[in-house]
Structures are given as C-alpha cells and as structure tokens.
Design goal:
Elements lengths: L1 H9 L7 H8 L3 H12 L3 H19 L4 H7 L5 H12 L3 H9 L36 E7 L2 E9 L6 H15 L9 E5 L12 E7 L12 E4 L2 E8 L6 H15 L2 E3 L5 E4 L4 E2 L4 E2 L1 E9 L2
Antiparallel strand pairs: 1-6, 2-4, 2-5, 3-4, 3-8, 6-11, 7-11, 8-11, 9-10
Length: 295
C-alpha cells in the first residue's frame, strides 16, 4: 500500500482513477478499494482531494502563487470548484485562509509546510513565531544535489511531541532491512504532509537510507526518490524540543533573506553517523529544502 500511496502522491494533480492505481498495485479495482479504505481510513477519492487541498494550501502559504494558479497546478479544473473544496476541508476560502496564516493567526500550529510532493515536515512552529524559539544554524549551503533513492519504512499517525514514534520507526527500519549497524549510516527522515493542515491520523513519515550503495542491496525494498536539483541545506544542533525552532528559522529567516522560496519536491532531515551528542543533549541535523529563486 505504501507504493500505491507514493504513486498517488506523485500523480495527485492528474486525473487518477481507481482502475489506474489498482493496475499499478496489481490487484482488481474491487479489492483495491476495500484494502485502501481499510488501511488508510478514507476512500481513494477523499484521499486525492485531501492531498490536492494540502498541496495547494502549502503553495499558497510558502510561495507567491495566485489562488487560481494553485487550483490548476493541484489538479482542479476551475477556481470555483477548488474554493468550495478548500473551504469544506479547511473552513475558510483560500484567499482568507492565506491572509490569516500570513498574518500569523493560527499559524502556531504549523512547523514547516512543503510543496508538491509536499512533505510537510511535522514539527510545530508553536511559540517560535515571535523569535523566542528560533535557533541559529551552524552553517548554510546552497547546492545542487543529485537524485537519491531512499529505501524506507513508514508510519502513519500523530507524532508531534512523541519521541517514541521515531524510535519505533528506527527499529522498523533496522528490522525491515536487516541493518546490523544502522548508526553507521546517513539516515533520512521525510515528512509527507504539512502539520496543521493534514489531520493527525493521516500524517505520514518515512525513514530510510540511501539504497544505491552496494552493501545496502536488499530484496524488494520500498524506495522513495529525492529528486535532483537546487537545495538549501542548513545545519542545526537542536535539543529534543528545538526542532520547530530550526525549521521555523529556515523558512522565516534564511529563505527570504536569500531571495528563495520552496519548489516542488520533498524537504527532509538528514542525520550523519554519530550525530548525537548525549553530553550536551543535542543532535546534529541537516535540514534540506528544494528551492528556487523568488518569482
């Protein structure tokens, strides 16, 4: 089912049909419908509409795109249909929702939002909007990154403020791929949904490692692709409760100061081997965001 969800995520702006996705999954449309709803808790149609609204909301908040452009870029055929679906899901029209978020009203629920694969990232902006919790990066780089294939495991559900969620995900990854020394690998954490827009029960997080290395060859891995392109990479050393301040600093301060905005693609956290400093209670992490020049 993860691969089917990845397919939907990659093609959410297209005219997806249950026959197309069931064919991709290799099962009948009837069985796919039953399994999909049992696993995800929503119908395929509801899932596609929710993803489109999430992506559109993310773009409205993090770029200068117009409401009409957001509608068409996220698979809606007209702005009126988009506005009705947006209001039904988020309670406000797209333009009013955008104005309130940009003014900071109710923005404290959100950590970082993304863009068209649109991994939202998942940490809370709460109390960081006034600068109280913003933390300073150790360094910032703007560089072209190659494409990377990440062998992953995934969990779904609420995770904010729950370190056990990520410990369990790490254990899942080690067991799934038979990793003897996972602490010696670079670990990637990919957030698929924007926190504060996606319902908690639908939040998805993937954790994995680069699958292109010969020693990491595994049978039939689940693979997610991080596309090549321009990324901003900011290195932080947050404590357990400071990740939101790191993401907030990157989006509120670093991107605007460099004339950049998010582009389509997954944003992610990357952890090097031996990234934990237990004496100081911090973890070294690179936050990587696909970017483009402000339009």
């Amino acid at each position: 089912m993860n691969r089917s969800l990845d397919y939907i995520e990659d093609h959410f702006h297209s005219d997806l049909s249950i026959h197309e996705i069931a064919s991709f999954a290799g099962i009948s449309p009837y069985h796919f419908h039953r399994i999909f709803q049992a696993v995800t808790g929503e119908s395929l149609y509801a899932c596609v509409i929710r993803l489109r609204i999430e992506r559109a909301a993310a773009r409205l908040l993090t770029t200068s795109i117009s409401v009409t452009e957001a509608a068409y870029s996220c698979g809606f055929n007209d702005a009126a249909t988009f506005s009705r679906a947006f209001k039904k899901q988020l309670g406000l029209s797209p333009s009013i929702w955008r104005r309130k978020k940009q003014k900071g009203q109710d923005f404290g629920k959100m950590r970082k939002i993304d863009h068209a694969h649109t991994g939202g990232s998942g940490y809370n902006f709460s109390n960081s909007m006034n600068g109280k919790w913003l933390i300073t990066p150790l360094g910032v780089d703007l560089k072209e990154e190659p494409a990377r294939n990440i062998a992953y495991v995934r969990r779904q559900g609420a995770f904010a403020g729950d370190p056990g969620f990520f410990r369990d995900l790490y254990s899942d990854m080690s067991r799934r791929y038979g990793l003897i020394s996972p602490e010696k690998k670079r670990i990637y954490v990919i957030y698929h949904n924007p926190l504060g827009i996606t319902p908690d029960q639908q939040l998805r997080v993937s954790m994995g490692f680069e699958a292109d290395e010969p020693e990491d060859a595994v049978a039939n891995p689940d693979v997610i692709r991080l596309e090549e392109g321009l990324y901003i990479q900011a290195r932080y050393e947050p404590g357990n409760r400071e990740y939101g301040g790191a993401w907030s600093d990157l989006y509120r301060n670093i991107l605007p100061s460099r004339g950049l905005e998010p582009r389509d693609g997954f944003a992610y956290e990357r952890y090097a081997p031996d990234c934990h400093d237990r004496n100081r209670g911090v973890t070294r992490v690179d936050i990587c965001v696909p970017v483009q020049k402000l339009k």
